[in-house]
Design goal:
- This protein is of the alpha+beta class.
- It has seven helices and nine strands, in the order E-E-E-H-E-E-H-H-E-H-H-H-E-E-H-E.
Length: about 240
Amino acid sequence: MAVQSPPLTALYCYGVTWADAAEAQRSGGLAGKSVEPVRFEQLAALTSEAPEGKIRARRADLMCHFDVLSRAFERGTVIPLRFGIVLEDVVEDFLRPRHDELVRLLRELDGRVELRVTAHYREEAILAEIVRENERVARLRGESSQAQLIELGKLVAGELRARTDHDARAILDRLRKLALDQEVDEEPIEHQVLRASFLVERKKVPAFDKAMEDLASGQAGRIDFKYVGPLPPHSFVGLEAG
């Protein structure tokens, strides 16, 4: 089968898709470069001329990497590559030696999307709830001694952790039934209940949408949700080139 000869210059690589679904993206790559597919057999790597100098993970460049993959995802299945991968010979260094693995991954990911869910407490609402439901916290609110303020802080923190654990489990229990896999961010952020990504069959996205609507309605005024997708499966497949 015909192989597209790679350019002489080093190429920045965004991801891999099927050759028949790949198309150029004019001026859509890093540093405004055109994104061009480099094809090998049934595969195509999405590439652009590598920017000069060291590639840094600046927000604008990360978003550009993400946007290139999102546009390609509108046309077909995509395997995202990790940010910052540059190759001298895309075919010989990547597509040829990993051909079978890449074909297998594209087949596995066919019809699957990533959905991202973030949930945060409304600070005033959750603190009012703690005061309302914990008599000791309510009594200590009017005190002013150092020891009582320390105790109050510990009580509130403990109540917040308990509610976070309970609500995160409830959300996950509802959503994991509709997903093939999940990735949960375990790094705590103040008043964050959950930040997770779900790998979902595209045909089940409407059911996932409905579940999110029910969760948001049931927690209205208490928990705010941010729901993003469908997206390429960044959280579940992020290949290194080596």
